């Protein structure tokens, strides 16, 4: 008897993870031999992240179909309902359902779209976290810290699974990290307040507030 993660047998998952680790080791060997810029490394790990998800063959999570059902009914003019005529709030992510519903209203098929958005926001999450690292660490430390962070993201099977699950996890994570990033920038701007910094401070606080509000609407 085998255990499953999604629709992947555990023994197959172990074999695939071993292959992924071997590929990662091969990349790290090339990195040691050749000089690779942080920007190139960021792109390489994003591509590696996507290849891992495709290779592990993750499918949509069952719960994703709840949001899809609400989104389709919303797009058809029935409102945010699971069954037409029954006003029951059974979704947990208003903004995600609204986003999918608007796209479906425009004629876009939302089953593949939800996976595409999940992967896209996973990339955005990786990039935003890297921006936070660049903001917090000195230039000489960024290469080491940033590289380690990228490796952890690239081989994090749980994060990859949720990116391909069709759910709002990566969208919510991106919004939350974006709010943290702009709030950090606001704290720095507040240290030396002058006319120019007041505008920057206002801009960063406004963006932080916006992203916090959107994250609350995504996963209250």
Count of discrete domains: 1
- Number of H/I helices: 9
Strand content: under 5%
As residue ranges, the low-confidence spans are 1-6
Strand order, largest beta sheet: 1-2
Global morphology = flat
Number of strands: 2
Report the mean per-residue pLDDT as an integer: 78
Distance between the termini: 39 Å
Q: Which sheet architecture does the biggest sheet show? A: 2 strands, antiparallel
Helix proportion range: over 70%
* Rg estimate, integer Å: 20 Å
Order of helices and strands: EEHHHHHHHHH
Structural class by helix and strand composition: mainly alpha
Entry keywords:
single chain, 220 residues, mainly alpha, two-stranded antiparallel ribbon, 9 helices, 2 strands, 75% helix, 2% strand, disordered N terminus
How would you characterize the overall build of this protein?
The chain is an all-alpha fold and about 220 residues long. It has a two-stranded antiparallel sheet with strand order 1-2. About 25% of the residues are buried. The chain is flat, with a radius of gyration of 20 Å. Mean pLDDT is about 80; it is low at about 1-5. It has one domain (about 5-165). It is built from 9 helices and 2 strands. Strand 1 and strand 2 form a beta hairpin.
Blueprint (SSEs and pairs):
Elements: E1 4-5, E2 8-9, H1 10-33, H2 38-56, H3 64-75, H4 94-105, H5 110-136, H6 139-154, H7 157-163, H8 169-191, H9 195-218
Antiparallel strand pairs: 1-2
Helix pairs in contact: 2-6, 2-7, 3-4, 5-6, 5-7, 5-8, 8-9
């Amino acid at each position: 008897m085998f255990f499953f993660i999604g629709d992947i047998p555990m023994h197959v998952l172990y074999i695939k993870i071993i292959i992924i680790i071997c590929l990662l080791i091969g990349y790290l060997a090339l990195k040691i031999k050749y000089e690779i810029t942080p920007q190139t490394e960021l792109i390489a790990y994003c591509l590696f992240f996507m290849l891992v998800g495709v290779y592990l063959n993750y499918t949509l999570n069952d719960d994703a179909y709840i949001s899809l059902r609400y989104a389709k009914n919303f797009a058809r003019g029935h409102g945010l309902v699971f069954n037409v005529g029954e006003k029951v709030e059974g979704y947990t992510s208003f903004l995600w359902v609204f986003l999918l519903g608007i796209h479906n209203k425009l004629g876009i098929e939302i089953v593949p779209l939800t996976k595409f958005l999940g992967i896209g926001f996973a990339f955005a999450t990786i990039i935003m976290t890297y921006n936070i690292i660049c903001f917090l660490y000195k230039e000489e430390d960024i290469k080491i810290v940033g590289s380690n962070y990228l490796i952890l993201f690239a081989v994090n099977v749980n994060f990859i699974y949720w990116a391909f699950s069709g759910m709002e996890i990566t969208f919510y994570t991106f919004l939350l990290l974006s709010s943290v990033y702009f709030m950090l920038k606001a704290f720095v701007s507040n240290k030396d307040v002058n006319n120019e910094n007041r505008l920057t401070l206002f801009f960063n606080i406004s963006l932080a507030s916006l992203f916090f509000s959107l994250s609350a609407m995504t996963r209250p």
